[in-house]
Design goal:
Elements: E1 2-5, E2 10-13, E3 20-22, H1 35-56, E4 60-62, H2 71-98, H3 100-105, H4 109-125, E5 129-131, H5 134-152
Parallel strand pairs: 1-3
Antiparallel strand pairs: 1-2, 4-5
Helix pairs in contact: 1-2, 1-5, 2-4
């Protein structure tokens, strides 16, 4: 069980046998020790990253039910985040291993191209996501990467 203390409330997250205490003076971090909770958070943040990218980047459109208070909105966001997580955690590492020499020789430019290609392929298979051009693809990939970097730190 993980206990989180803040200046406003105490949050309890059930997870295993271990108990950790966090105070407002500690570095603010959320440590989740069990894989199912970590997986749910990763799915959630991937969905939120897609949503933020569609909100910020013109030409990058994620079509979801209009009312965010309805369960259909959150289910659609969860499915989009789940599919993006599968692409990022199952397909991308295999391609990175295959393209490792090219990534090294290009000083990471191939890795950037791989991110763009995977997001473009993802948009082909997900009818809710439409990307209308190269620059929305680039900026959408940047926003998704930024949100995921912030959520993982």
């Amino acid at each position: 069980m993980v206990l989180l203390y803040s200046c406003f409330s105490k949050v309890t997250i059930p997870c295993g046998q271990e108990v950790k205490y966090y105070t407002i003076y500690d570095k603010i971090e959320l440590h989740i020790n069990c894989m199912p909770m970590k997986l749910l958070f990763m799915i959630f943040f991937n969905g939120v990253a897609l949503w933020i990218a569609s909100w910020l980047v013109p030409g990058f459109t994620l079509t979801l039910p209009a009312d965010h208070t309805q369960p259909a909105f959150w289910i659609s966001l969860f499915i989009a985040g789940l599919l993006l997580l599968i692409v990022n955690k199952a397909i991308k590492p295999v391609l990175q291993i295959i393209l490792f020499p090219a990534i090294i020789l290009s000083l990471g430019l191939v890795s950037f191209a791989l991110n763009l290609t995977l997001l473009w392929v993802y948009s082909l298979y997900i009818p809710e996501l439409t990307i209308s051009g190269f620059w929305p693809l680039v900026w959408g990939s940047f926003v998704i990467s930024l949100v995921n970097t912030i959520s993982n730190s």
